[in-house]
Amino acid sequence: MPDGLRGPNPLAAYLHFLVPELGTAPARSDPPTILEAERWGFERIAADRPTLVFLDDLHVADEATIDLLHAAAAWLEGLPLLVVGAHRSDELPPDHPLRRLRLERRRAARAHEVVVGPLDLEGTARLAARIFDRALSPALQALLHERTQGLPFFVEERAAALAASGRLRATAVGLALDQADPLPIPESVGDTVLLRCQGLSETAGAALQVAAVAGLRFPLDLAADLAGDDAVLDALLERQLLVESEPGVGTFRHALVREAVYGDIPWGRRRALHRLVLTARWRKPRSRSPTFTPATALQHSQPHDSQAGPPSPNTAVSSEGRPNRQVGISDPTSDVPGNTIANPNPTLVSTAS
Q1: In the chain, helix, strand, coil percent, each to 5?
Q2: Which of 23, 193, 309, 330 is 20 to 30 A away from residue 264, measured at CA?
Q3: What DSSP string describes 193-249?
Q4: Distance between CA atoms of residues 128 and 134, nearest Å
Q5: 287 and 203 inside one domain
């Protein structure tokens, strides 16, 4: 408990929900009294020495917390107290009250904002080297940066998983990973990603699975058509699982999101989805499928191991520019019934002519 809050004061009990050590919560309370108690608490803490208050994850803060910050903006001016708040801008809903607070503080010229972006290649390599306790080869640096996109949490977790795997070898230019050896997805990262998918409707979950099979970049109408509902993509875009990188083209916010979703799809359903995506892409006019190429078609024609992550495009195509039939691709122009996926359960994939 902060030293400044020690000692008897009638307002102390109203801070019980923040500092339980202050005693039993009062039987009744109201917002103005709680706000006054919070003001008293900040004043008492800052009375002894300059103080820093750090508030994390403000993108999930409730309205009462934002109301406190609104009020505190006025009465903290004369205190030796600095309030630092952190939030994820890409997870801030359009109607979140923090946006209003942020705008007001900017207009009053009383906010100092620091944007913390992802690490560059050098920063990724330095962070990973601290975990490995040795330098990485240029190839492993590039691979780790590409697969984590420089997000420190992903860099740390993926590097730790690699270090524990025993699959690294020392070379003259630093630690290296066999090119054929996939980069593992740590459970902590997979769980973090999949938790963000909780609460999606069945149709939205199906659309996300279609997107994971379709690729890191894909036509948005492809996922909507196969899921059977144009509106489901709104939920995925609002949750920042997907972003519209250019008109009509969807992209996973992070490559690891796609990897985790793809790896969570049961094998039979994954195989069926590859067939549906391949058929839909060949049937759709090329002008509406800007990310589709013969190499993309080839990746949907072969079985894939979820543990190895989503497939990479293969460039082996015939001289006519079509996928090579020797790898087992059926004729995409044949009479194949249209397909929709109304439920992410692999046993409930429906077909309709």
Answers
A1: 50, 10, 40
A2: 330
A3: HHHHTTT--HHHHHHHHHHHHH-SEEEHHHHHHHHT-TTHHHHHHHTTSEEEEETTE
A4: 9
A5: yes
- Domain of residue 273: give its range: 189-351
Contact between 280 and 289 under an 8 Å Cβ cutoff? The reply is no
Query: Do 130 and 54 belong to one domain?
Result: no
Q: Are residues 163 and 221 in the same domain?
A: no
The pLDDT of residue 128 is 93
Which tops the pLDDT comparison, 295 or 161?
161
How does DSSP classify residue 18?
T
Residues 237 and 318 in one domain: yes
Q: Is residue 224 part of a domain?
A: yes
Strands (E), the chain: 51-55, 81-85, 168-171, 174-177, 217-219, 242-246, 249-252, 339-340, 350-351
In a domain, 115, yes or no: no
Contact 316, 298 (CB under 8 A): yes
Token duo for residue 139: 């190839």
Q: What percent of the chain has pLDDT over 90?
A: 8
Q: Give the total number of structural domains in the chain.
A: 3
Judged by phi (left if over 0) then psi (alpha if -120 to 50, else beta), residue 321 lies in left
Do 92 and 47 belong to one domain?
yes
pLDDT digit string, tens, across residues 241-300: 888 888 888 888 888 888 889 988 998 888 888 888 888 877 765 434 444 444 444 445
pLDDT at 96: 87
The per-residue pLDDT for 120 is 95
Residue 116 lies in a domain: no
Total H helices, total E strands in the chain: 13, 9
- Regarding whether 300 and 179 lie in a shared domain, the answer is no
**Does residue 333 sit in the same domain as residue 316?**
yes
Percent of the chain with pLDDT over 70: 74
In the Cβ-directed half-sphere of 203, how many Cα atoms lie within 13 Å? 14
Whether residue 221 sits in one domain with residue 169:
no
Cα dihedral sign for 20, 23, 28, 29?
A: negative
